[in-house]
Amino acid sequence: MDIEDIATREFVEVDADERLGKVRSIFERENPKGIIVTRDGEYEGVLSERQLLQSHVEDDTKAGAMVKSAPKVSRHDGVREVARMLVEGGTKIAPIFEGPKLWGVVTQDDILEAVIENLDILDVEDIHTEEVTTVTEDAQLGQGINLMRENGISRLPVVNENGYLTGMVTTHDIMNVVVRNMDKAGKRDRAGETQRILDLPVYDVMSSPVVTVPLGTSVRDAVETMLEHDYGGIVVTPEDDDRLIAGVVTKTDVLRALTYTEETQMDVQVTNVNVLETLTREEIQQAVTEVADKYSEMQVLHAHVRFQEHKEKLRGTPLIHCRIRLRTNVGQMGGSGEGYGAESAFYVALDKLERNVLETKGMQADEEYEGQLLRKLGEL
Q1: Alpha-carbon distance 256 to 86, whole Å?
Q2: What does the pLDDT look like over 155-169, one tens digit per residue?
Q3: CA 300 to chain centre
Q4: Contact in structure between 369 and 167 (CB atoms under 8 Å)
Q5: CATH architecture of 261-369
Q6: Based on CB atoms within 10 Å of each CB, which residue in 29, 76, 220, 358 is the most buried?
Q7: Does residue 76 have a pLDDT over 60?
Q8: pLDDT class for 30, splitting at 50, 70, 90?
């Protein structure tokens, strides 16, 4: 199946000189997966709600100043390859070109709807993320925004003082509140109004109750739920208690699963490859493989390396956060770290991953020794 078979010729487009105030209103009114930005009719980039979720960006800022590059797709590219491009580009939408001309767009939802009948072979437990960033009900909205920005996520499960799931807050929820309140405020009131919004407790903005899925749910059922409610991700709960959080599964997790291969070489996926300068994909794959090989009984089903760029810089080199996650036959393992430049951040994260792998290996060895000892004592 070529991507043109599932793509759309209709998309939201704005000029690079359009004010962000109007762009925010478009997201609030039409809720697109992304907006295509053009300059003099030529493709410039894409805009997402997450990019606009920055309190210091004024409404009069031009859209062109905020655009993000997205992978350019050919009409005849395969669905699996485009899924990989969306994941690695960290975007929900990609422009499709016919030669030099913009032909249409493809979104995460387009791909998931096309392959949904094939998703029964996986359960949510096979692809969900166990490490979940949460926020408490009484946290200020500004704190929630910072958590989203720092972790490169677009949704935060909300928990009460007992750690039970009580709500969900997303970038779209926040954009709705910001746009609604900014429309009411006059120009002189906007600075104070913005601060008032950031001081709101998350409880006042979150959606509740939360739609969840248990670990044993098929990926197909989870995707159908996300598409039905227009969710980018959904909270995963233990089979016996839907108040607790076992993880999160997102549309990106599902797309990533579509790219899994049966090759003998480990499949390492890299998100935000645009920050790589002195580091190559091959070097990343080799380094992660060498660490995984230190625990011979551990089989890596999939490896994911995510880079997140911060605004802080040192001599022009940006501060990068790197997170490595391995999905294995003995559970999920990971490591994260920061450094100036992708290479520095990657090796800090790799060092932590190695320690976690060796610790798990040691724990397994201790359990085996304990079992052998008990058997010998039982023979006495």
Answers
A1: 9
A2: 999 999 999 999 999
A3: 21
A4: no
A5: 2-Layer Sandwich (3.30)
A6: 220
A7: yes
A8: confident
Mean pLDDT calculated for residue range 277-305: 86
pLDDT at 167: 95
Residue pLDDT, tens place only, 105-139 = 999 999 999 999 989 888 999 889 888 999 999 99
DSSP 68-94: B----EETT-BHHHHHHHHHHHT-SEE
**Residues of the chain above pLDDT 90, percent:** 40
CB 303 within 8 A of CB 324: yes
Using a CB cutoff of 8 Å and minimum separation of 24, what contacts does 285-289 make?
287/346, 287/347, 287/350, 288/324, 288/326, 288/350, 288/353, 289/265
Residue ranges per structural domain of the chain: 3-108, 122-254, 261-369
DSSP state of 1: -
CA dist., res. 323 & res. 87, Å (int): 15
**Vertex 357 angle, CA 355 and 361, to 5°:** 115
CATH superfamily of 3-108: CBS-domain (3.10.580.10)
Rounded to an integer, the average pLDDT of 166-184 is 77
As a whole number of angstroms, the distance between CA 220 and CA 250 comes to: 12
What is the Rg, in whole angstroms, of the alpha carbon atoms belonging to the chain? 22
Q: Which residues fall within 8 angstroms of residue 55, CB to CB, at 6 or more apart?
A: 142, 145, 194, 198
Q: Is the pLDDT of residue 89 over 90?
A: no
pTM: 0.69
CATH value of 122-254 in 3.40.50.2300, 3.10.580.10, 3.10.20.30, 3.40.50.720: 3.10.580.10
- Token pair for residue 184? 């009411």
The order of strands in the sheet holding 42-47 is 13-15, 35-39, 42-47
C-alpha to C-alpha distance for 173 and 177, rounded to whole angstroms: 7
